[in-house]
């Protein structure tokens, strides 16, 4: 097997002698690329952001920003990354390099003060700069810098692309000004041209150091046979959960198996009676490929962590961890989703409502993994996702509530409600569903059902919220949905 290697700023370098758990961040810094910083080591500050060449949605390659502090460098064997140092345009005949347009705008508009967070902002901004479908939006004649959409600039720059980057001293206005000032990449921009060629193909990896091994099998069949032989192996996709365990809790694994590039886990298909989403697609890929066709998921995505996390995190990983406060399970429960579980002996389909069995426990057996998520069709027309948290974005839910209702002639024909943060597992609000179905969608019905919803689950007191607050928010969420939808339903 070929020795593990990675291309950094156009230069190929061996991964050895880094340990299999070594992050991309530590790997880069040990080689003198110190623009990549460690701030939080858990994917919340973005100081470590780098660009990775990945299969594109609208072009062969997308430049995708990821948290280098979470990704094992072995996971990028054979892959291509660019750091903040690699964005500058090389000079000719010994002349100094020229600042990249994103770097130039950050400098001239005062977007950097102490500079610690700046390289991470630069990389996240560059990923948005090179997004192929970024296009100009309408703007106010009184103020051309203002977009009709406050979260998009007149140049089409999406501020959500910076939602995973924190700055503690500069303030965000000059950073926003810089983001909204960047133009289109020049025709001879090498990173723009690079989008027209395919990214590196995933390579089978067997990287061992110090009695631990990182493995990337080439096919799903090989992966399932490996998991049969090594049921103790840690399975990773985006590594947004496992990376935190490695950094914060010093967890180590004898064997890590990467499944994020398996073709069999990266499909997205519309069938006559369901949508099947491969478990290893990133949330960003799903969001862009669905393009709003599942409104409840479209409402979830902007509230799920940050763009940096969504560029790596997967539905399979979010369900596989079994966390009771994961944001996707309530939505998928409301959508009546099922998971396709695969092992070396075959596949089985399990309704998500029957998947979770206890705190971070599920029906998934040793050697089994989530291959796909299935969402039945047709979709309910009235949907909403309410995430109650201390911050609007990039925060852990205190309570998460997802609704999917069929309302015909003013009567609730079907109700599905998924809850997170109010029990040891994500749950369906079965009693509330029963209190709504067959009843008119009127204030009396909703107020009675809201009382039932307040009693669903077993909410507890913790540092995010009290049990009384959680119960109150459950009931309030249904009242909010009624207020938001009554006019639309009646019309």
Give an overview in words.
The structure is a single chain. With 491 residues, the protein is α+β, with helices and mostly antiparallel strands. Helices cover 28% and strands 21% of the residues. It has 16 helices and 20 strands. It has helices spanning 24-30, 84-87, 101-108, 118-129, 173-181, 190-194, 220-229, 242-248, 283-290, 295-300, 307-310, 315-320, 328-334, 430-436, 443-454, 467-490; strands at residues 5-8, 11-14, 49-55, 61-67, 80-82, 205-209, 212-216, 234-236, 255-258, 268-270, 274-278, 338-343, 346-351, 356-358, 361-362, 369-376, 382-388, 399-408, 411-420, 427-428. Strands 2-1-5-3-4 form a 5-stranded mixed beta sheet. The protein has a 5-stranded antiparallel beta sheet with strand order 10-11-16-12-13. A 4-stranded mixed beta sheet has the order 6-7-9-8, with no helix packed on it. Helix 14 packs antiparallel against helix 15 and helix 15 (443-454) runs antiparallel to helix 16.
User: Number of DSSP strands?
Assistant: 20
Class from secondary-structure proportions? alpha+beta
As residue ranges, the low-confidence spans are none
Estimate the strand proportion: 15-25%
State the helical fraction: 25-40%
Our Rg estimate from Cα atoms comes to 23 Å
Please outline the major beta sheet. 5 strands, mixed
Shape: globular
End-to-end gap = 64 Å
How much is the average pLDDT? 94
């Amino acid at each position: 097997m070929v020795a593990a290697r990675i291309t950094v700023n156009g230069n190929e370098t061996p991964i050895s002698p880094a340990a299999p758990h070594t992050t991309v961040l530590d790997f880069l810094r040990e080689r003198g690329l110190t623009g990549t910083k460690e701030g939080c080591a858990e994917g919340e500050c973005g100081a470590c952001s780098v660009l990775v060449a990945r299969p594109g949605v609208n072009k062969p390659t997308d430049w995708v920003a990821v948290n280098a502090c979470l990704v094992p460098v072995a996971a990028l064997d054979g892959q291509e990354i660019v750091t903040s140092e690699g964005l500058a345009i090389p000079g000719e005949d010994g002349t100094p390099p020229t600042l990249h347009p994103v770097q130039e705008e950050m400098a001239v508009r005062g977007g950097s003060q102490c500079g610690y967070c700046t390289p991470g902002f630069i990389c996240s901004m560059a990923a948005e700069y090179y997004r192929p479908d970024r296009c100009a939006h309408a703007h106010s004649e009184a103020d051309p810098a203002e977009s009709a959409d406050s979260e998009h600039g007149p140049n089409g720059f999406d501020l959500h692309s910076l939602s995973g980057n924190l700055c503690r001293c500069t303030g965000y206005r000059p950073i926003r000004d810089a983001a909204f000032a960047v133009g289109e990449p020049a025709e001879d921009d090498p990173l723009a041209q690079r989008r027209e060629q395919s990214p590196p193909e995933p390579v089978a990896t067997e990287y061992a150091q110090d009695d631990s091994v990182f493995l990337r099998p080439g096919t799903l069949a090989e992966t399932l046979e490996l998991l049969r032989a090594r049921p103790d192996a840690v399975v990773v996709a985006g590594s947004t959960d496992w990376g935190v365990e490695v950094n914060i809790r010093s967890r180590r694994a004898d064997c890590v198996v990467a499944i994020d590039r398996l073709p069999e886990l990266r499909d997205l298909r519309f069938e006559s009676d369901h949508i099947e989403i491969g478990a290893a697609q990133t949330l960003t890929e799903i969001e862009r490929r669905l393009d709003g066709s599942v409104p409840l998921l479209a409402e979830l995505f902007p509230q799920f962590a940050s763009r940096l996390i969504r560029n790596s995190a997967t539905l399979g990983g979010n369900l596989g961890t079994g966390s009771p406060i994961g944001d996707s399970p309530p939505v998928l429960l409301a959508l009546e989703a099922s998971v396709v579980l695969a092992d070396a002996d075959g596949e089985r389909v399990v309704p998500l409502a029957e998947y979770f069995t206890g705190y971070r426990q599920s029906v998934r057996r040793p050697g089994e993994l989530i291959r796909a998520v299935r969402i039945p069709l047709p979709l309910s027309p009235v949907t909403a996702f309410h995430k109650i948290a201390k911050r609007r974005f990039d925060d852990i839910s205190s309570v998460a509530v997802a609704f999917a209702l069929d309302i015909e002639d003013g009567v609730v024909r079907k109700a599905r409600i998924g809850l997170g943060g109010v029990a040891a597992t994500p749950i369906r609000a079965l009693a509330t569903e029963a209190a709504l179905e067959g009843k008119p969608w009127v204030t009396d019905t909703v107020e009675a059902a809201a009382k039932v919803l307040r009693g669903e689950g077993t909410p507890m007191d913790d540092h995010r919220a009290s049990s009384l607050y959680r119960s109150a928010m459950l009931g309030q969420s249904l009242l909010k949905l009624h207020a938001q939808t009554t006019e639309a339903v009646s019309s």
